[in-house]
Amino acid sequence: MIDLSDPHVVYVAISYAVTCLAIFGVWANLLLKSMRLKRQLERLGLADIGRDT
Amino acid sequence: MQILANPHRFFALVNRVLPLLWIATLMAFVLGLYLSFFNSPADYQQGETVRIMYVHVPASTLALSVYILMALSSAIALIFRHPLADAAAKSAAPLGTMFCVVALATGSLWGKPMWGTWWVWDARLTSMFVLLLLYLGYMAVWRAFDDPHRAAALARIVALVGVVNVPVVKFSVDWWNTLHQPASIMRRGGPKIDSSILLPLGVMFAAFALFFVSAHLMGLKNEVRERKLRAERLKSLSAK
Q1: ipTM over the 0.95 cut-off
Q2: Nearest CA in chain A to B8
Q3: Is B225 on the interface with A (CB under 8 A)?
C-alpha cells in the first residue's frame, strides 16, 4: 500500500493527475466532437455512419 | 478483411463493440489503479516513486506502438488504397501524441527525485522528444492542406520516414550511455522485475491499450463522419 509519508509521494500524485487529465481530456474531446458531427449529419437529414436510418 | 473494407459494415460492427470496449477499459483502469496503489510494494531503492512506472511504461510503449500503427496504416494506404487506412493513421495521431506527452511528463516527474534533474538531453529522452515532434509534424501536415488527398500523400511520407526513429528510441539505452535505465521488461531472457510489480504493470498496460483501441475507434468514426459531411457539402456546392 502507498505510504503517504514518503517525501516523494507528491511526484507520484502529480504523475497520476497528469495522466488522468490527459486521458479524460482526449476522451471528452472525442465525445464532444462526435456529438457535434452527429448533430450536423442529422441537420442535413443523413443517417449516422453504421446505421441504416 | 475485405468485408471490413466496407465502412458501413465496419461501423455497424464498431457500434456494437464500442460500448463493451469502454466498459472493459473502465474496469481495467479501476483494477490497475487499485493494484498500483494498494497491492504493490514500494521499491527498496526508489521508494514510492516506483509507482510512476505504472503510468510511465504503458504510456511510453503505446507512444511507440501507435507510431508503428500509423506507419503501417500509411503503408497500407499507399500500397492497397484501403479506404480506411489514412483515416486510421490520422485518428491515431492525437492519441499517440497524448501518450508521448504523458510519457515525457511522467518521466520528468520520475527523473527529478531519482536523477536530481527534470531533463537531460540523453539519447532516450531526446529520441522520445523527436517522436513527439514527428507526431506534431504529422498532425500539422493534415491541417496544412485544404485538399485532403494532398495532405494524405504528404502525411504518409512523414509517418513512413519517421518510423525510423522508433528503433532508435527502443535501443537508445543499449547503443549509447544514457541516464535512463536499460530495458527491464521487453528484453532477451524475459522481464527482470518481480511479479508483485509486474502484475499491476500488466493490468495498467491492458487498461492503456484498451483505452487506445476504444478511443481510436471513436476517432475513426469521427473521421468518417467528417468525410461524409465534406462530401455532402461538395455535392451541394456543385449543385448550385
Answers
A1: no
A2: A50
A3: yes
Angular region, B132: left φ>0, alpha ψ -120 to 50, beta rest: alpha
Condensed to tens digits (0 to 9), the pLDDT of residues A8-45 reads 899 999 999 999 999 999 999 999 999 999 999 888 88
pTM over 0.90: yes
**Shortest CA distance to B184 belongs to which of B167, B198, B166, B169?**
B198
Contact B14 A50 (CB under 8 A): yes
Q: Does A24 touch chain B (CB under 8 A)?
A: no
